[in-house]
Amino acid sequence: NEARSRRKQTDWQNVPIAKPEVLGIQVTDPVSLKKIVPFIDWSPFFHAWELRGRYPQILKDPIVGEQASTLFADAQKLLDRIVKENLYTAKAISGFFPANSIGDDIQIYADEDRAQLLTTFCTLRQQTHKTNAKENFSLADFIAPIESGRIDYCGCFVVTAGHGIKELAAEFESEHDDYHAIIAKALGDRLAEALAELMHKQARENCLFGQEEELTNEELIKEKYRGIRPAPGYPACPDHTEKWKLFSLLNASETIGVSLTEGLAMTPASSVSGFYINHPEAKYFAVGKIGRDQVEDYSLRKKMPQRDVEKWLTPNIDYEL
């Protein structure tokens, strides 16, 4: 379609492809909570309490600063207990695989001879008309196409800090202490996101280009590094059903105890999953609204009935169902 004709044009012979030192699945069980804590982004913690502002500036905010400071002190006290007593168990599974794009699909191979196809991740392309002939992105644009003759690499991950949260929250709830129960759950979410940040840092180091990074936590939060980690269900990859392939590829449910509900939410809830894409120009974007032509094409590529595709992508559909 018209959007596909405006795909990102790349001279792949001049793109620095980063080959990971270690290919295949790697498991870390457990991950030290002490190692995770320095990677916490605290701003969303306050947003969960409807306190708007960025950490640490929010602690001195003239309107919500006092409330934010009290909340932060209580969270720090509980976090110290969680770490000292190992009340939460953090686990991670990830892996890099040889990969190439074919059209808007990303093919994942068992090894570099590409004889065995492990799975195919299907991506969606922006269809919004852009001025000045700007590109309509899909995630597949950032993986070397098969016709380039080059082998690229794509990573996948599932991490969790959720084992133990339900038990600690239940402890507080049994004492009618909803305040600390909510903090316990919010800290689980922050630790899971922090673990995703830590594992991405290690992934970049595995791909060598990250070994010389000297980024502060603030710079990490602002993603001042090469590469992205888009997640199924989020704007660049709005289809939650790609999680089925990701979880199957990594055997995440059996290995680290993170499973998918019927609605494709992860359980334990404080879990994060996604892809590692290393292209130096890779960026986050929103697929946005898509037309019937792309839905039909996507349905064929995924081998999924069109009505099911439309069900999962309802918020993105730009025509009447």
Share of β-strand residues: 15-25%
Question: What average pLDDT do the residues reach?
Answer: 95
Structural category is: alpha+beta
Number of helices: 11
Q: What is the subunit arrangement here?
A: single chain
User: What is the succession of H and E elements?
Assistant: HEHHHEEEEHHHHHEEEHH
The percent range for helix content is 25-40%
Total count of strands: 8
Overall geometry comes to globular
Low-confidence stretches: none
For the record, give the distance between the C-alpha atoms at the N and C termini, rounded to a whole number: 21 Å
Largest sheet: 6 strands, antiparallel
What is the rounded Rg?
21 Å
3D architecture notes:
The protein is α+β, with helices and mostly antiparallel strands and 321 residues long. The chain has eleven helices and eight strands. Strands 1, 2, 3, 4, 5 and 8 form a six-stranded antiparallel sheet that branches. It is globular. The protein starts with a helix and ends in a 9-residue tail after the last helix.
